[in-house]
Backbone:
C-alpha cells in the first residue's frame, strides 16, 4: 500500500512538472503512448485529430517511451509536439489519474494496465476492431471517423 501511495505522489509531481515544463493549458490534448505496440500507437495518433476537434483543443502533446511514432499521416489543425517520458513515469501518472481525474484532455493509451483493463481481451475474443476500441472506448467519440 505504501508503494501505491508513493506512486500516486510521484504521479502528481510528474504532472505538475509536465504542466510547468511544456506549458500545458486546458485547451491542449495530452496523449501518453506507454506501450511499444506500434499498431496501437499509430491508431491512437491517427484518431487524435477527431478527439481534438471534439474537445476543442488547439495543441497536442504526445509522450512516448521511445521515438517510434513520428511517422504521422494524420491531418492536424493545431500544433503537434512529441516528447519522451519513461514508462514508469507514465505508470505513476496512471496511478494518480486513477485516484483523481486531474485533467480532462489526457488520454493514457495503456493496453494491459490497470489490472482491470480488458482492451486486449476485447480485441482477441470479440468482433471489436482496434479502431472501434480506440475511437469509442478510449477517445469516447460517437463513431469511428471515416475520413481519417
Residues:
Amino acid at each position: 500500500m505504501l508503494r501505491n501511495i508513493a506512486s500516486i505522489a510521484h504521479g502528481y509531481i510528474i504532472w505538475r512538472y509536465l504542466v510547468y515544463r511544456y506549458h500545458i493549458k486546458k485547451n491542449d490534448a495530452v496523449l501518453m503512448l506507454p506501450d511499444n505496440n506500434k499498431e496501437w500507437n499509430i491508431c491512437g495518433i491517427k484518431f487524435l485529430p477527431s478527439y481534438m476537434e471534439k474537445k476543442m483543443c488547439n495543441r497536442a502533446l504526445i509522450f512516448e517511451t521511445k521515438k517510434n511514432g513520428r511517422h504521422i499521416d494524420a491531418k492536424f489543425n493545431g500544433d503537434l509536439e512529441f516528447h519522451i517520458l519513461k514508462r514508469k513515469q507514465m505508470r505513476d501518472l496512471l496511478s494518480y489519474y486513477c485516484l483523481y481525474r486531474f485533467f480532462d484532455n489526457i488520454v493514457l493509451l495503456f493496453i494491459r494496465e490497470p489490472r482491470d483493463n480488458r482492451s486486449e481481451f476485447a480485441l482477441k475474443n470479440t468482433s471489436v476492431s482496434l479502431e472501434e476500441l480506440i475511437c469509442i472506448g478510449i477517445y469516447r467519440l460517437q463513431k469511428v471517423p471515416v475520413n481519417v
